[in-house]
Specification:
Elements: H1 13-35, H2 50-58, E1 66-69, H3 74-81, H4 84-91, E2 109-110, E3 113-115, H5 122-136, E4 142-147, H6 154-165, E5 170-176, E6 179-180, E7 183-184, H7 185-188, H8 193-198, E8 204-207, H9 212-229, E9 233-238, H10 254-261, H11 275-297
Parallel strand pairs: 1-3, 1-4, 4-5, 5-9, 8-9
Antiparallel strand pairs: 2-3, 6-7
Length: 303
């Protein structure tokens, strides 16, 4: 196996768990590698947010739909293409990386996947892409992932206005992990995400779940509606951030973290997979990540 296994909306529970476990282990390994000075630049992991990445991307048509992600993009990227080796090399600044080691952790591109670390900067780009697909009459959907902290950027609201006015085929996914870096959402956001989206006449739903099956159940009808009507839809998803904002900047209490871990998307699947099967799948994912990491460590860097 050279890539992590990809999933679609009808994938088995075991396959969904396997992909989420692979993403989790990849991200955990990055924090370890950062501590050893093996990465080029910073990195923002998606520990705890694997269900959103796998659930949303599994509903998309990878051949024609477009995905735009932010600085916390690894899970979305791996759910889209599974290219763990190329992502390792990119974050290490090596020639064999996704963007030849020049984009780093935040700026990735492979086929229809794009990420950008500029806060809020992906929204205007998403609007332009959605307009292009509408003109082509391709029935392609542009999916853009936003964090809760991104709603402090003016470009987001300008883009939402155009998305609604022009009725563009765009799916807006808000991953609300409750923290903008180290500031709780309630201390930096007035009103609600739903209210802000509805102010632009963009239909919005909100789900409070970290269960990947529930994410798929919520996303697929929205995809179908956008494909049919060509108009924007939004979904606010409760997300967890089990790790720090980037490396060590996490000031949450032990009690808060214990409550968050109870909603771990991998743990939620324990009742659907036998303990032996779960252990076997996790071990296989661990072996793949370990082997891939060892391989990229041998690759030459730029001289």
């Amino acid at each position: 196996m050279s890539h992590l296994p990809l999933c679609h909306r009808q994938s088995s529970t075991e396959d969904l768990y396997s992909l989420m476990a692979g993403i989790r282990l990849f991200e955990m390994s990055l924090l370890d590698m950062f501590g050893q000075g093996l990465l080029a630049g910073t990195t923002h992991t998606c520990l705890g947010q694997e269900a959103t990445a796998v659930g949303v991307v599994s509903c998309l048509d990878r051949e024609r739909d477009i995905i735009l992600s932010s600085h916390r993009c690894h899970g979305h990227f791996l759910a889209y293409c599974g290219q763990a080796e190329e992502l390792y090399l990119e974050i290490m600044g090596k020639p064999g990386g996704v963007c030849a080691g020049r984009g780093g952790s935040q700026h990735l591109n492979v086929r229809n996947f794009y990420s950008n670390g500029i806060q809020g900067g992906i929204m205007p780009i998403a609007i332009g892409m959605a307009k292009a697909e509408k003109l082509r009459q391709s029935k392609a959907i542009v999916t853009v992932f936003l964090g809760d902290g991104t709603f402090g950027e003016g470009a987001v609201y300008e883009a939402l206005n155009i998305a609604s006015l022009w009725q563009l085929p765009i799916l807006i996914i808000v991953e609300n992990n409750g923290n903008a870096q180290s500031t709780p959402t309630q201390l930096q956001l007035s009103g609600t995400f739903q209210g802000r989206l509805e102010a632009f006449n963009i239909p919005v739903q909100e789900i409070k779940t970290t269960d990947v099956r529930q994410v798929i159940k919520a996303v697929y009808p929205l995809i179908d509606k956008i494909r049919h009507d060509g108009s924007p839809q939004a979904l606010v998803i409760e997300a967890l951030r089990l790790g720090p904002h980037s490396k060590g900047d996490d000031h949450r209490s032990k009690q808060e973290m214990d409550e968050i871990r109870d909603k771990d998307p991998l743990t939620l699947m324990k009742d659907l997979i036998t303990p032996s099967d779960q252990a076997c799948i996790y071990q296989q994912a661990q072996e793949f990540i370990d082997a891939t990491r060892q391989k990229v460590l041998q690759e030459k860097s730029y001289e």
